[in-house]
């Protein structure tokens, strides 16, 4: 259970109690809004609609040292016509999560050609995750894990694969994110 599992994690002292995480990627990839719904509400919605302005979801995490940590996840619009808005969200972020579908090569290529470039030019964030979604559709996979991992090693970013539908890898990603944020 994602909502309860994080409460038992042992982490160091966070340097702050609230963090801003921006979730980026192409429209309709299923890694942004679905990911946040599973992460924050512990539910998968088959009828997700696109994000047009930006949506905030907050996750409170009780650390074993007695402190409470809040992560504000900002879901951003992925449609091309809204991309200029994203620069507004990039201000003062602690982490960026770049999502793509492992069954859609174009979404992975756009990470490399557009989304990473946008991060470089508009933000000084050091903590970046690449998250491949829809690993439950293994028979349709077109982006292999080793290809994505190689890219992440070259760019010094963290990599996770998830299935929002089956809640695979979500808790592990949240655990790692919490650990990394508390090191900042």
Task: Explain what you see.
- With 184 residues, the protein is an alpha/beta fold.
- Helices cover 34% and strands 22% of the residues.
- The two termini are 27 Å apart.
Order of helices and strands: HEHEEHEHEHEH
Strand order of the largest sheet: 2-3-1-4-5-6
Helicity level, as a percent range?
A: 25-40%
> Radius of gyration from the CA trace?
15 Å
Q: Spans of 5+ residues with little confidence (pLDDT < 50)?
A: 1-11
* Beta fraction: 15-25%
Compute the number of helices. Answer: 6
Overall morphology: globular
Q: Structural class given helices, strands, pairing?
A: alpha/beta
Per DSSP E runs of 2 or more residues, the count of β-strands stands at 6
Task: Give a short synopsis of this structure.
With 184 residues, this protein is α/β, with parallel strands linked by helices. The chain contains 6 helices and 6 strands.
Task: List strands and helices in order, with pairings.
Elements lengths: L1 H4 L12 E7 L8 H9 L13 E8 L5 E8 L7 H7 L5 E7 L3 H18 L5 E6 L11 H11 L2 E4 L8 H14 L1
Parallel strand pairs: 1-3, 1-4, 4-5, 5-6
Antiparallel strand pairs: 2-3
Features:
184 residues; alpha/beta
């Amino acid at each position: 259970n994602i909502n309860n599992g994080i409460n038992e994690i042992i982490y160091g002292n966070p340097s702050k109690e609230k963090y801003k995480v921006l979730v980026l990627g192409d429209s309709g990839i299923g890694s942004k809004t679905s990911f946040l719904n599973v992460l924050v509400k512990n539910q998968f919605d088959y009828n997700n609609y696109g994000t047009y302005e930006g949506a905030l979801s907050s996750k409170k995490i009780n650390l074993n040292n007695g402190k409470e940590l809040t992560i504000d996840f900002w879901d951003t619009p992925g449609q091309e016509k809204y991309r200029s808005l994203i620069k507004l969200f990039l201000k003062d972020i602690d982490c960026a999560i770049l999502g793509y579908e492992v069954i859609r090569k174009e979404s992975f290529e756009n990470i490399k050609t557009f989304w990473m470039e946008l991060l470089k030019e508009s933000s000084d964030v050091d903590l970046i995750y690449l998250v491949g979604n829809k690993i439950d559709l293994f028979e349709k996979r077109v982006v292999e894990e080793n290809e994505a991992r190689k890219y992440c090693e070259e760019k010094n970013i963290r990599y996770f694969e998830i299935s929002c539908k089956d809640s695979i890898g979500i808790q592990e990603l949240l655990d790692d994110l919490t650990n990394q944020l508390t090191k900042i």
